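Question: what's this shape?

___
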Amino acid sequence: MKHPSLVYLVLCLWCWAPLAQLRAVPLSVFLGGSPPSAPAFTAHTAGFDGNDVIKRTSPPTGLSDGSAFTISLFLDPTGLDSTLQNILWFSSSRLEIRKTTGNAYQVVALSSAGSSLLTATSSVTKTASDGWFHLYICVDLTTSANCKFYFDGTVDASASWSVTNGTIDLLTSAPNYKLGGGNSDLNKAHTSMAEFWFNDSYLDSPSSFATGAVPKSLGSDGSGPGVAPVWYLSLAGSGASWIGDSSANANSFDTIFGTLGSPAAP
């Protein structure tokens, strides 16, 4: 006969294995609930206080001239309402997004000859009391009906658009790409930013980026919406780390003028 203590040990181990597996199952499952969901996505942020500009002065990998682009960006205006503020600026104003003196948002695009191809102004306005919102702009100059502003996922049907088909000079001969300031670093922005996504193609899909004013995860390189972007800022961190590009192109901004803040996420 086997030793009694050995038989007891085997029985204990046989019983303990399934019990250990059961302990890993949340109690809510036994009570009829669902397993806990994955943690919500939390965006990294950068605070621009009117003294800050970030720049890239080398040609971005993957960027090409063309007639289309898409921008997704979360903004939280923080001050100096009713003043002109540059959000995005490409060399020689070839592409600009700015907050107007009327607190609307405006996008402008030029050809390599400096001819105007696009001037659009939102009917929606935002001030420092409004908090975070999702700004989404998709443009296809070949079809004016495809040029749209979205605010928190809702199209701005009353925005004004002046559209001329042509080639936007995105990859300029003197590369200088900025967030937070304009020509000669004037008209600096007073705003918090998060989840800057840019591509030189047309994508009419704001719901891929946000639910209302809340960002969605775009994956480890920003390609979650099904398109690999030229820029995606940023999974690198908040504040000064936010200049690191998380796209597969690694088009990080290379210069910070001022000190970027780390505001609370949208």
Notes: The longest strand covers residues 68-77. The longest helix spans residues 4-23.
